[in-house]
């Protein structure tokens, strides 16, 4: 079954280039393109895609507001595009529910892989990016508290959340906790469910905003 994608960017050449690369993949189907945030929201409502590739800076309605609406209204995963590494708007995008972000000069293979990763329900924050992101994110005031405090988690779930916040993959968490990957997946699922979070990106945010994880610790 193909991954259905909407590509939204106000630069026609950029938008068309991304759409062409993705549509050339046998397992990806670009169902619509959009030139601004309002068009992106309308396209998601009309086509019900799996992934919205969304530029942060666009006219009429920016990517942040579009991401907030899309994430609130649907199960579509949002992958943000930005010109700068750790763009100020990236933090707002993640709080809005985005599952990750890409630089606009991303390599072809990395773009395709990113869409597949996000469509599969994972977040797109490599450990190195997570570290830089968290160092900046933790300095910023929280827009809202987590949906529930980490106290609702069991000891193992809290440990899992802390390791997620450090950027570890499921395999690495399993090794650190000396359990199977299946057990880790169960812990991760419980963490997201109990805290009312969409994905691992928001889990990282919740861990730092709640004080469970501390930069440099």
UniProtKB/TrEMBL annotation:
SMART domains: HTH_LUXR, REC. CDD domains: LuxR_C_like (cd06170), REC_NarL-like (cd17535). GO terms for biological process: phosphorelay signal transduction system; regulation of DNA-templated transcription. It comes from the Bacteria. GO terms for molecular function: DNA binding. The modification 4-aspartylphosphate is found at residue 55. It holds the Pfam family GerE. Residues 4-119 form the Response regulatory domain. Residues 146-211 form the HTH luxR-type domain. Keywords: DNA-binding, Phosphoprotein, Transcription, Transcription regulation. Gene3D superfamilies: 3.40.50.2300. This is LuxR family two component transcriptional regulator.
């Amino acid at each position: 079954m193909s991954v259905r994608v909407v590509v939204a960017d106000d630069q026609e050449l950029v938008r068309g280039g991304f759409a062409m690369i993705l549509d050339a993949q046998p397992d990806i189907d670009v169902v619509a393109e959009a030139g601004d945030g309002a068009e992106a929201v309308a396209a998601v409502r009309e086509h019900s895609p799996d992934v919205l590739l969304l530029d942060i800076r666009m006219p009429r309605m920016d990517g942040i507001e579009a991401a907030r609406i899309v994430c609130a209204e649907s199960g579509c995963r949002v992958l943000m595009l930005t010109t700068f590494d750790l763009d100020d708007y990236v933090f707002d995008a993640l709080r809005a529910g985005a599952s990750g972000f890409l630089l606009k000069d991303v390599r072809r293979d990395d773009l395709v892989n990113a869409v597949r990763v996000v469509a599969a329900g994972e977040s797109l924050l490599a450990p190195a990016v997570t570290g830089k992101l968290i160092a900046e994110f933790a300095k910023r005031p929280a827009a809202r508290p987590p949906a529930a405090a980490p106290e609702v988690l069991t000891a193992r779930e809290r440990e899992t959340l802390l390791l997620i916040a450090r950027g570890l993959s499921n395999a690495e968490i399993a090794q650190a906790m000396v359990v199977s990957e299946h057990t880790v997946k169960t812990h991760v699922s419980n963490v997201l469910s109990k805290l009312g979070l969409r994905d691992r990106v928001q889990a990282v945010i919740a861990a730092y905003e709640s004080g469970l994880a501390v930069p440099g610790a």
